[in-house]
């Protein structure tokens, strides 16, 4: 049933997939962090012509499956003259999808800074920019970290969806190995083991972050 | 008292869960002819790649592979087929794991597959072809050309073309597995792949459906033989396979076989001139 020779034989090919999986997660995380912040700020805008469209877009993206969005980016955008490579389409798909979640984290983080802080900043005549960079953001970020990290771990676990748009990430490499040798046990077990090997330490690290930052919430 | 009650409850739950598990995992009866007759249908794997196998928009299972299997099985006393769509590479593990009773997807008979499954006598034969942009801009005539030019080739997952490409030295990153045959022509139109490799009849079907004057077919691909497919059974199910073969041989002799496959464009003679033993390179 389990063939160690086969395992050693397919490690190099699966390792190519691991590299792509990690790249996709890191790039997707960067997009989600930056776009999410932009989205959070846009949704707090006093101008309803900014606030409503971004609010609608965020709800729309959160309310539809990532797989559908990936197909849209991959198969439908070319009809509109936008041809993204599979990896670029995949990373944008992951990043934008998760940006709608990170935006909520940013929003609650910002809302949780007490009203008194805003009033105090106003009282000592700080500019809007100073209020954000020196008062609000430094207090808002620490409690956000565990929630953000949680989303990045779940993004990591969703990267196999990119196989559906031909990105040669780990799952796609494993599928290709399995199809070539008619053997599923080893490649699929190795994919599962890899994800577990990364997720479990990440979760332990996350618990530590929570312990460190959580008391400040109270 | 309380404790023993708790234990009884726990045991009952466990028993219930166990029974549920058994009922969920039960349908793995042996695929012998008697079992199939009693069941009233056979579960077959298909790929949804016309004209080999096709699920129509109305949900009907058709295509040359399922039509042959349906006719043979009807004569054996199994009135119906139930089809599952699967990737080519997943069909052999699937039949081994009893997810299907047989594969009637036009799986080519090749020695390494003969080692894993029991094939029927050949039924559907075809040559390999390429679909590409009009005028064959990269001048691709063989899988070796694809490797030499560093071109991107679309293939269906686990299909013969994927192996042919990798064996010809095409870089794995340039072998793009398309999710289904129809997406392949879309990816070619969008320029995501340079060439799409499939058997002649599949490409002809896609070209008719795509109806795009900028696409054309090159066939036969240089250096590839004519492949013939058969129905694949579990290695242990040779009795069922032999019964299937007996009926298939009758139908080949009386012309019923040709009447099914020729309207789809397959040559009945090509299938009748070769044999499983030749294609497997030995008994199977």
Task: Give structural notes.
The complex is a heterodimer of chains A (218) and B (284). Chain A is flat, with a radius of gyration of 21 Å. Chain A has eight helices and no strands. Chain A has a single domain, classed as MetI-like (MetI-like fold, Orthogonal Bundle). Chain A is 79% helix and 0% strand. Chain B has two domains: 33-125 and 226-274, 3-Layer(aba) Sandwich (D-Maltodextrin-Binding Protein, domain 2); 128-218, Periplasmic binding protein-like II (D-Maltodextrin-Binding Protein, domain 2), CATH 3.40.190. Chain B has helices spanning 2-25, 33-39, 64-76, 88-96, 111-114, 143-149, 160-167, 181-189, 200-210, 238-254, 256-261, 268-273, 276-280, and strands at residues 41-46, 54-55, 61-62, 80-85, 102-108, 118-119, 124-126, 128-133, 153-156, 175-178, 195-199, 215-218, 227-233. In chain B, strands 1, 4, 5, 6, 7 and 13 form a six-stranded mixed sheet that branches. In chain B, strand 9, helix 7 (160-167) and strand 10 form a beta-alpha-beta unit. Chain B is globular, with a radius of gyration of 22 Å. The interface between A and B is medium-sized, with 18 and 25 residues.
Give keywords:
heterodimer; A: mainly alpha; MetI-like fold; 8 helices; B: 284 residues; D-Maltodextrin-Binding Protein, domain 2; six-stranded mixed beta sheet; five-stranded mixed beta sheet; 13 helices
Topology:
The complex is a heterodimer of chains A (218) and B (284).
Chain A: H1 4-43, H2 48-62, H3 66-76, H4 86-111, H5 115-123, H6 128-158, H7 170-181, H8 185-213
Chain B: H1 2-25, H2 33-39, E1 41-46, E2 54-55, E3 61-62, H3 64-76, E4 80-85, H4 88-96, E5 102-108, H5 111-114, E6 118-119, E7 124-126, E8 128-133, H6 143-149, E9 153-156, H7 160-167, E10 175-178, H8 181-189, E11 195-199, H9 200-210, E12 215-218, E13 227-233, H10 238-254, H11 256-261, H12 268-273, H13 276-280
Parallel strand pairs in B: 1-4, 1-5, 9-10, 9-11
Antiparallel strand pairs in B: 2-3, 5-13, 6-13, 7-13, 8-11, 8-12
């Amino acid at each position: 049933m389990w063939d160690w020779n086969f395992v050693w034989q397919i490690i190099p090919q699966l390792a190519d997939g691991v590299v792509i999986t990690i790249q996709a997660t890191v790039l997707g995380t960067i997009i989600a962090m930056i776009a999410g912040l932009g989205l959070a700020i846009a949704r707090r805008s006093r101008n309803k012509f900014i606030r409503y469209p971004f609010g609608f877009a965020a709800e729309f993206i959160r309310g539809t499956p990532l797989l559908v969005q990936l197909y849209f980016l991959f198969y439908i955008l070319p009809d509109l003259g936008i041809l993204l490579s599979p990896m670029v389409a995949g990373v944008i798909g992951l990043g934008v999808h998760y940006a709608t979640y990170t935006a909520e984290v940013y929003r609650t983080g910002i809302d949780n800074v007490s009203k008194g802080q805003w009033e105090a900043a106003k009282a000592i005549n700080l500019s809007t920019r100073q209020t954000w960079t020196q008062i609000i953001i430094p207090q808002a970020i620490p409690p956000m970290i565990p929630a953000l990290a949680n989303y990045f771990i779940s993004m990591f676990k969703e990267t196999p969806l990119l196989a559906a748009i031909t990105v040669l990430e780990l799952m796609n490499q494993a599928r290709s190995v399995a199809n070539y040798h008619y053997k599923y046990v080893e490649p699929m077990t190795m994919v599962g083991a890899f994800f577990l090997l990364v997720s479990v330490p990440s979760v332990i690290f996350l618990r530590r972050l929570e312990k460190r930052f959580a008391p400040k919430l109270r | 008292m309380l404790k023993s009650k708790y234990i009884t409850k726990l045991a009952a739950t466990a028993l219930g869960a166990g029974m549920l598990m058994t009922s969920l995992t039960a349908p793995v009866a042996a695929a012998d002819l008697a079992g199939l007759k009693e069941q009233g249908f056979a579960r077959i794997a298909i790929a949804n790649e016309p004209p080999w196998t096709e699920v129509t928009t109305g949900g009907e299972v058709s295509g040359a592979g399922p039509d042959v299997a349906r006719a043979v099985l009807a004569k054996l006393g199994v009135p119906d087929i139930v089809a599952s769509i699967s990737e080519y590479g997943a069909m052999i593990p699937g039949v081994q794991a009893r997810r299907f009773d047989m594969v009637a997807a036009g799986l080519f008979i090749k020695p390494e597959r003969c080692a894993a499954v029991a094939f029927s006598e050949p039924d559907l034969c075809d040559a390999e072809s390429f679909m590409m942009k009009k005028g064959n801009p990269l001048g691709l005539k063989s899988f070796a050309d694809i490797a030499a030019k560093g071109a991107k080739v679309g293939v269906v997952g686990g299909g013969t073309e994927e192996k042919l490409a990798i064996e010809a030295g095409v870089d794995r990153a340039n072998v793009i597995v398309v999710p289904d045959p129809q997406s392949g022509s879309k990816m070619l139109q969008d320029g995501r792949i340079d060439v799409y490799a499939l058997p002649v009849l599949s490409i002809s079907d896609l070209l008719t459906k795509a109806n795009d004057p900028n696409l054309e077919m090159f066939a036969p691909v240089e250096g590839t033989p004519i492949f013939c497919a058969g129905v694949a059974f579990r290695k242990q199910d040779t009795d069922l396979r032999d019964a299937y073969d007996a009926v298939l041989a009758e139908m080949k002799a009386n012309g019923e076989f040709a009447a099914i496959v020729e309207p789809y464009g397959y040559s009945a003679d090509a299938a009748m001139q070769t044999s499983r033993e030749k294609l497997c390179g030995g008994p199977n």
